[in-house]
Amino acid sequence: MKSFTIICLSYLFLFQFSFAEQSKTNCYPQPINKYVNDFANVIDKLDTQKIKESLKRIDQQTGTEITVVTINSINDYKKTEKVFEHFATELFNNWGIGKKKRNDGILLLAAIKDRKVRIELGSGYQGVYNRLAQSVIQNDIVPYFKQNQYSRGIYQGVHGIITSVTKEVSWLEFYKWPILMLIVILILILAAISAFRSGKNGWGGALLIAIGFLLFFLIKMLISKSSSGFGGGKSSGDGASGDW
Question: What average pLDDT does the segment 90-95 reach?
Fold first, then answer.
């Protein structure tokens, strides 16, 4: 009887834990793609492909993470926040959009039934970018949304974000540490070869061990830069909103 009671209590605990986790998950939509999450199903296949390609290219060239999210309504999710702007900020932080050290992620969120759209910016952007985001919403997105051309509006909005809001980072700046590490590895390889040829096998072996460690960290660094997940960025609520 005692064992039966313990088993029942264990199942009850697991059930409550599972329910709590599910409720937490349902507070906000969960990402299915790093670049386009069309939960409202309003972006056509061609625009989706073009947007993904553009955002992937920007991510690879500058390290800036931009993601598009469409939902029907914020009321579809179990959350306490009823304000659209706050929902966007919490969604941004829940996903961790943008690189953690730079906080330069960007979220384009459209709630179709709520008739609201927002460009949420990471906390690394200065105030001037709020005005640029507002311009993108008013000039590139809302005119199409008013005509129910949501796919075209989102496509134009992404293009506007890339050209006017995105903080440019040179390819050299983005990959400077992997490049520097690669140069050090090449120097160590030449030094190891020289040590072995001169009979200093101890030094050569030590250099090979150092090369192995550096290669490990280089590969790890490159993988992190090409990761399919978000980088842990945060937003303080900056950006711009619009409706139609």
Answer: 95
